[in-house]
């Protein structure tokens, strides 16, 4: 199976990397260069079935495009994007595994845990400086590149602050529905008394704090291992700070403690966290480093073992079962799809270049971080009964 972009480059499907409710991610090989990328395919009939679905896709594209054009090293880069009558396509850097996968392999040593934390703070700083909220930070959305450095990705729920008069995104309230993943919600998002659902960019700090709790404690299990907003809120009302005792480093524990302040007004900003003693105190640790060297990826990333390569190319189906939707939901979704598809047509969608069309700047398209040679691959899947299966599904 081959996908061809509006720029006339073609991508050969090698295997399925992952799938979700709104699409699939494939490992592909670019026809001319032989480089390998992740191709995210978002069916319009699914994406547009939710209110504002088209805008979410545009924001996801814009966020990765900004990361590419400003050379932000720790946010997922967009290499190409386009759309046709049925789907939206994002060609992205291919990363071997996620932080979720790595945590399931065992505890990360203290040096690399600190380096990963530093890189993630810089990733979030870059997004926030461009007035973009991620809104779904969790280990599954943090990817590890072939060089062992992190990339904050899956920006499908990201949202920008468009008002140019807003100077402080940490003080600017956003109103809207709950966005994110159960277990990683900030308390202000699910507080039953917060009926207007207003929040700020501090929600990203809280979610990242929960990721740091897992990173520093070496736990693959979420601190709030809930299955619903209500259950997570109930868990938050009990004393949870005792669980931070699983973090051995006192300064790391204090860092997480501050990031998990229930009151967002007391929660630090990303820039304040960069000055935390965990990163700057040379009296108690030899693991302090220069922030410029971190940003330039001058420190060795976490070790990545080799993988022999992807499975054989297969014809992958894109069928989705909507049978669980009741008649009213189907009617609402159908109306939303028609409205947003009409917008595509009006803006030159379909097989023509549209709002989704993007080609990375000249010179950056040969950046070696886009891809790497097959002999140095490692992926988050393995063989199981003759099929590629995510490592997490096999091991646990």
UniProtKB/TrEMBL annotation:
Domain Protein kinase: 11-279
E.C. designation(s): 2.7.11.1
GO molecular function: ATP binding; protein serine/threonine kinase activity
Cross-referenced InterPro entries: Kinase-like_dom_sf, Prot_kinase_dom, Ser/Thr_kinase_AS, Ser_Thr_kinase_AGC
Superkingdom: Eukaryota
One Pfam family, short name: Pkinase
Keywords: ATP-binding, Kinase, Nucleotide-binding, Serine/threonine-protein kinase, Transferase
Reactions catalysed: L-threonyl-[protein] + ATP = O-phospho-L-threonyl-[protein] + ADP + H(+); L-seryl-[protein] + ATP = O-phospho-L-seryl-[protein] + ADP + H(+)
SUPFAM superfamilies: Protein kinase-like (PK-like)
The name this protein goes by in its record: non-specific serine/threonine protein kinase
Lineage: Eukaryota, Fungi, Dikarya, Basidiomycota, Agaricomycotina
């Amino acid at each position: 199976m081959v996908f061809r972009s509006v720029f006339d480059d073609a991508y050969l499907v090698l295997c399925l990397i992952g799938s979700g409710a709104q699409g699939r991610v494939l490992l592909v090989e670019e026809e001319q260069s032989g480089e390998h990328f992740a191709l995210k395919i978002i069916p319009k009939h699914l994406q547009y079935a939710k209110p504002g679905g088209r805008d979410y896709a545009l924001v996801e594209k814009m966020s990765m495009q900004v990361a590419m054009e400003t050379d932000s090293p720790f946010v997922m880069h967009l290499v190409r994007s386009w759309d046709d009558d049925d789907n939206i396509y994002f060609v992205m850097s291919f990363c071997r595994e996620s932080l979720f996968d790595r945590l399931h392999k065992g505890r990360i040593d203290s040096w690399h845990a600190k380096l990963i934390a530093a890189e993630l703070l810089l990733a979030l700083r870059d997004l926030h400086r461009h007035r973009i909220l991620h809104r779904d930070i969790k280990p599954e959305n943090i990817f590890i590149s072939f060089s062992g450095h992190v990339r904050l990705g899956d920006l499908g729920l990201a949202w920008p602050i468009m008002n140019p008069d807003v100077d402080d995104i940490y003080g600017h309230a956003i109103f809207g529905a709950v966005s994110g993943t159960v277990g990683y919600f900030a308390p202000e998002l699910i507080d039953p008394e917060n009926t207007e659902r207003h929040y700020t960019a501090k929600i990203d700090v809280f979610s990242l704090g929960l990721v740091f709790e897992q990173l520093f404690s070496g736990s693959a299990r979420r601190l709030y291992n809930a299955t619903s907003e209500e259950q997570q809120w109930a868990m938050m009302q009990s004393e949870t700070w005792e669980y931070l005792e699983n973090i051995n480093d006192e300064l790391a524990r204090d860092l997480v403690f501050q990031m998990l302040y229930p009151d967002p007004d007391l929660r630090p900003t990303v820039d304040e966290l960069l000055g935390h003693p965990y990163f700057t105190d040379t009296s108690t640790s030899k693991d302090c480093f220069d922030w410029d060297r971190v940003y330039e990826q001058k420190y060795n990333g976490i070790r990545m073992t080799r993988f022999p390569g992807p499975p054989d190319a297969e014809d992958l189906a894109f069928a989705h079962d909507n049978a669980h939707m009741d008649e009213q939901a189907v009617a609402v979704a159908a109306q939303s799809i028609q409205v947003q598809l009409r917008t595509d047509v009006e803006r030159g969608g379909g097989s023509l270049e549209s709002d989704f069309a993007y080609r990375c700047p000249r010179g950056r398209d040969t950046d070696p971080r886009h891809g790497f040679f097959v002999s140095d691959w490692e992926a988050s899947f393995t063989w199981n009964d003759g099929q590629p299966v995510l490592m997490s599904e096999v091991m646990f």
